[in-house]
Automatic annotation (TrEMBL):
Catalytic activity line of the entry: (R)-5-diphosphomevalonate + ATP = isopentenyl diphosphate + ADP + phosphate + CO2
Classification of source organism: Eukaryota, Fungi, Dikarya, Ascomycota, Pezizomycotina
Matches recorded under Pfam families: MDD_C, MVD-like_N
UniProt enzyme class: lyase
Source organism, top-level taxon: Eukaryota
GO biological-process terms attached to the record: isopentenyl diphosphate biosynthetic process, mevalonate pathway; sterol biosynthetic process
Keywords assigned by UniProt, alphabetized: ATP-binding, Lipid biosynthesis, Lipid metabolism, Lyase, Nucleotide-binding, Steroid biosynthesis, Steroid metabolism, Sterol biosynthesis, Sterol metabolism
Family recorded in the similarity comment: Belongs to the diphosphomevalonate decarboxylase family.
Pathway as given in its UniProt record: Isoprenoid biosynthesis; isopentenyl diphosphate biosynthesis via mevalonate pathway; isopentenyl diphosphate from (R)-mevalonate: step 3/3
A cellular component term, taken from the record's GO annotations: cytosol
Protein name, as recorded: Diphosphomevalonate decarboxylase
Domain Mvd1 C-terminal as annotated: residue spans: 200-360
E.C. code: 4.1.1.33
């Protein structure tokens, strides 16, 4: 069969939440029980690169395919990937209906090739960057006019946190209240240039794929944790407001306190679940103690907090700090890692990561 190959490539960065998404009110549409807020990290260190292509040359019987880090993923059996592909196709098909001169791409099989420059599924938010890059590359291939916020509705259905990786800087995912998820969208609270001194240090405690997947964990927490309703209904809505205020005011002391409180609150509802979910290990707790020691020195001297730890659904630590405190935060961790005084570290990724600028 004749015809060109249409192709588009993009990269999407990882985002690390400072107010955590934990709990689904609708598991099919990935609608959250609470809003969340994250910092999108620079693409230099943690990102997914994705190329989407389609062509009449591609064998129709083989259908759509996804190669992730060199291995074929069974996307035919992934309702989440299918939801994203189906919605992107239907937007393209409406475009084609309104402009008959456009090539009919919506009917062609898609080949998607994706690579991460960091360990997949190690609690480093690979699914967030992965689904954001998938949605963005196909939206570009299809020349869709939808904004990043509109595309966040689609990426959300791949992986909830993916909706926050379509924007750079400081990004909120508003839980919304509509049953169809039409108002459960991400928006940019502040661009990276608003607070460019922000840095993150990612400490890889374990790159192994062994933690409980987030969807399964969330369901157990929502069903069994007695602390959970207070977190979702009372604590997080207030914290979202305070966090947005801290970001607007570039108040690192408040940002750091809220970040650590929310990470601890999230891990507390995990431990309060039955069976209990424990994502942190002894090495994670050692990282907490290092951050506490750094902050103690600073507060003893009458200054504010210098560092904030946060942990997702795994043992790896992300530590936020400001550029001016690089030596006092990243320097301390570097010295500890370099001297191998903390057993169990597998290394660090993207030290001194800045908030991302998104390419248009
Ligand atoms: O997007 P998911 O389903 O992988 O869930 C992510 C959940 C956390 O990373 C623990 C929190 C968050 O808001 O990113």
């Amino acid at each position: 069969r004749q015809g060109p190959v249409y192709r588009s490539s993009t990269t999407a960065p990882v985002n690390i939440a400072v107010i955590k998404y934990w709990g689904k009110r609708d598991a099919t549409l990935n609608l959250p029980t609470n809003s969340s807020l994250s910092v999108t990290l620079s693409q230099a260190s943690l990102r997914t690169h994705t190329t989407a292509s389609c062509s009449a040359h591609y064998a129709a019987h083989e259908g759509d395919s996804l190669l992730l880090n060199g291995s074929a993923e069974p996307i035919q059996h992934s309702p989440r990937t299918q939801a994203c592909l189906g919605q992107l196709r239907s937007l393209r098909s409406s475009l084609e209906a309104s402009d008959p001169s456009l090539p009919k791409l919506s009917g062609l099989p898609l080949h998607i090739v994706s690579t991460n420059n960091f360990p997949t599924a190690a609690g480093l938010a690979s699914s967030a960057a992965g689904f954001a890059a998938l949605v963005r590359s196909i939206a570009d291939l299809y020349a869709l006019p939808q904004s990043a916020t509109e595309l966040s509705r689609i990426a959300r259905q791949g992986s909830g946190s993916a909706c926050r990786s379509l924007m750079g800087g400081y990004v909120a995912w508003r839980a919304g209240s509509a049953a169809d998820g039409s108002d459960s969208l991400a928006d940019e609270v502040a661009p990276p240039a608003h607070w460019p001194q922000m840095r993150a240090l990612v400490l890889v405690v374990s790159a192994a794929k062994k933690h409980l997947p987030s969807t399964a964990g969330m369901q157990v927490t929502v069903k069994t944790s007695s602390l959970f309703p207070t977190r979702a209904d009372v604590v997080v809505p207030r914290r979202m407001q305070n966090m947005e205020q801290a970001i607007r005011a570039r108040d690192f002391d408040a940002f750091a306190r809220l970040t650590m409180q929310d990470s601890n609150g999230f891990h507390a509802v995990c431990l309060d679940s039955w069976p209990p979910i424990a994502y942190l290990n002894d090495v994670s707790r050692a990282a907490v103690r290092v951050v506490e020691a750094i902050n103690q020195q600073s507060t003893d001297a009458g200054a504010g907090l210098l560092a904030a730890y946060t942990f997702d659904a795994g043992p790896n630590a992300v530590v936020y700090y400001l550029e001016r405190d690089t030596e006092r935060v990243a320097g301390v961790f570097r010295a500890l890692l370099g001297n191998e005084r903390v057993e169990g570290w597998e290394g660090s990724y993207g030290q001194d990561i800045k908030p991302a600028e998104m390419e248009e």
